[in-house]
């Protein structure tokens, strides 16, 4: 298989498995998505989806959020981890949205990445899922799978993102980043991985990864 064949195989297989693509984080607008993505750093989406209804019942927009203290926010989001940093970020970015953006989440990588606690990955998720702008946010699943599939060298998340954007057609980016996350969770996890269920890695996987897998099975 050429690299182009492999890329097409990934696209076709994922489309077959996930014709409808659920969004992992519950939200109703760009602001609630931004907060949910921020909370998801080093925390499972399941946990975030348990906590956001509690937070959004008190404040689901920047104007209500700034009425709460950082301490009050921290208390609610504590189960998501990193609560001191995340609560300051949520309060701080809500204030900036009101002061600089009329209370709206800006449709711009540049402005999003200026917000406290918002990095490139968070901005990419918001741009793709809230505004439909082509982006390829790379999480641990995508980073792991791009390496397993021999489509990136695994050196850094930044490199994986560059490779994904270079290899996959731009019109597929927003679907693919979600499809790969779901595939990674269901068929190609970091732990408890069964290669027999993982059709993509079994078909196009990096030789060293496959050799290591079989060696460990003996």
From TrEMBL:
Keywords: 4Fe-4S, DNA damage, DNA repair, DNA-binding, Endonuclease, Glycosidase, Hydrolase, Iron, Iron-sulfur, Lyase, Metal-binding, Nuclease
GO MF term list: 4 iron, 4 sulfur cluster binding; class I DNA-(apurinic or apyrimidinic site) endonuclease activity; DNA binding; DNA N-glycosylase activity; metal ion binding
Keyword DNA repair on entry: yes
EC code: 4.2.99.18
InterPro entries referenced in this protein's UniProt entry, alphabetically: DNA_glycosylase, HhH-GPD_domain, HhH_base_excis_C, Nth
Cofactors demanded by this protein: [4Fe-4S] cluster
Matches recorded under SUPFAM superfamilies: DNA-glycosylase
Entry-linked SMART domains: ENDO3c
Example of a GO biological process term: base-excision repair, AP site formation
Cofactor comment text: Binds 1 [4Fe-4S] cluster.
Top-level EC class: lyase
Residue ranges of domain HhH-GPD in the record: 39-186
Pfam (any one): HhH-GPD
Catalytic activity annotation: 2'-deoxyribonucleotide-(2'-deoxyribose 5'-phosphate)-2'-deoxyribonucleotide-DNA = a 3'-end 2'-deoxyribonucleotide-(2,3-dehydro-2,3-deoxyribose 5'-phosphate)-DNA + a 5'-end 5'-phospho-2'-deoxyribonucleoside-DNA + H(+)
Organism superkingdom: Bacteria
Family: Belongs to the Nth/MutY family.
Function recorded in the entry: DNA repair enzyme that has both DNA N-glycosylase activity and AP-lyase activity. The DNA N-glycosylase activity releases various damaged pyrimidines from DNA by cleaving the N-glycosidic bond, leaving an AP (apurinic/apyrimidinic) site. The AP-lyase activity cleaves the phosphodiester bond 3' to the AP site by a beta-elimination, leaving a 3'-terminal unsaturated sugar and a product with a terminal 5'-phosphate.
Name of the molecule in the record: Endonuclease III
Species annotation: Tenacibaculum aiptasiae
């Amino acid at each position: 298989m050429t690299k182009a064949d492999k890329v097409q195989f990934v696209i076709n297989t994922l489309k077959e498995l996930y014709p409808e693509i659920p969004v992992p984080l519950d939200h109703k607008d760009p602001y609630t998505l931004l907060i949910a993505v921020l909370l998801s750093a080093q925390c499972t989406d399941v946990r975030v989806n348990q906590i956001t209804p509690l937070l959004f019942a008190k404040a689901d927009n920047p104007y209500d959020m700034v009425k709460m203290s950082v301490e009050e926010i921290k208390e609610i989001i504590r189960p998501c981890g990193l609560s001191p940093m995340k609560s300051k970020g949520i309060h701080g970015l809500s204030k900036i949205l009101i002061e600089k953006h009329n209370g709206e989440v800006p449709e711009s990588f540049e402005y999003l990445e200026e917000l406290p606690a918002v990095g490139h990955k968070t901005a990419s998720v918001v741009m793709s899922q809230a505004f439909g702008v082509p982006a390829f946010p790379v999480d641990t699943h995508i980073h792991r799978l791009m390496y397993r599939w021999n489509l990136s060298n695994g050196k850094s998340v930044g490199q994986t993102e560059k490779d994904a954007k270079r290899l996959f057609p731009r019109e597929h980016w927003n679907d693919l980043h979600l499809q790969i996350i779901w595939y990674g969770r269901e068929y190609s996890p970091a732990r408890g991985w069964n290669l027999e269920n993982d059709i993509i890695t079994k078909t196009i996987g990096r030789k060293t990864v496959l050799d290591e897998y079989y060696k460990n099975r003996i």
